[in-house]
Every structure is written in structure tokens, then in C-alpha cells.
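User: Could you go from structure to sequence for me? I need the amino acid at each position, not a summary. C-alpha cells:
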């Protein structure tokens, strides 16, 4: 990785990954909206990390991580324990910044998007340890 070609290759791969991730988030958002969820935040950034989507469905507030992989199983396996911890910490900050939100329960969900662009939502994919 000492020459310009290698850096270009890595930059291109990074751009493709970013584009793929954005497309997966758009697919996930459409699927969630179609199921009746209201999108409250997209790509919510905090000092602890980012939450892809924050949605409300009836009285439940959902913090959603989106993963795109060739298969749903690979997408589900891609969510690491460290990422789960980061999302939970970010959710705490987001909740502190939005006392106006009215909800009865919270869930941490995963939307897995496969190569065909199909999305599958896993409710309560993880929780506090």
C-alpha cells in the first residue's frame, strides 16, 4: 500500500462500501415505513457512535442497525457485540437529547438486506447485557 494505485484501490473499495451501505439504509427505511413506522432520525451521530435509523412504531421506539451482505444470515452475523454496545451507548445519548419523544418501550432491531435488495427486520436483535 505504498503506491498511489493501492491507495486508489482502497479508496474505491471504501466508496463502494459506503454507497452500498447508503442504499441498504434506503431500502430499510422504505421497508420500515411500509410497515407503519415513523422515521424520527437517520444516521443519528453521537460522541459514542452512530445509529442508522431511529423509528417509532405505535408506542415503541426502535433503534435500528442496517447491515447489507450477500445473504441475510451473513448480514445478521455482521453485527458484533462491540457494535451492539456502541449502539446502546449512542441510544442513551439520543434519548437524553429528545425528552419530547413519547414511548412505552424500546427495542434494538436489525434490518438485514441481502444481494437482491430484500430486507428482513429482526425485532429485539440484541438488548442490554
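Assistant: Here is the amino acid at each position, in order:
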Amino acid at each position: 500500500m505504498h503506491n498511489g494505485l493501492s491507495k486508489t484501490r482502497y479508496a474505491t473499495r471504501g466508496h463502494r462500501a459506503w454507497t452500498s451501505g447508503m442504499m441498504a439504509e434506503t431500502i430499510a427505511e422504505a421497508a420500515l415505513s411500509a410497515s407503519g413506522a415513523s422515521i424520527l432520525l437517520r444516521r443519528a451521530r453521537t460522541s459514542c457512535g452512530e445509529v442508522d435509523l431511529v423509528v417509532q412504531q405505535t408506542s415503541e421506539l426502535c433503534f435500528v442497525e442496517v447491515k447489507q451482505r450477500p445473504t441475510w444470515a451473513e448480514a445478521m452475523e455482521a453485527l458484533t457485540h462491540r457494535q451492539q454496545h456502541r449502539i446502546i451507548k449512542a441510544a442513551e445519548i439520543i434519548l437524553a437529547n429528545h425528552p419530547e419523544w413519547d414511548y412505552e418501550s424500546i427495542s434494538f432491531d436489525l434490518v438485514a438486506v441481502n444481494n437482491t435488495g430484500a430486507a428482513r427486520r429482526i425485532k429485539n436483535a440484541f438488548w442490554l447485557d
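One structural detail worth keeping in mind: The mean pLDDT is 89.
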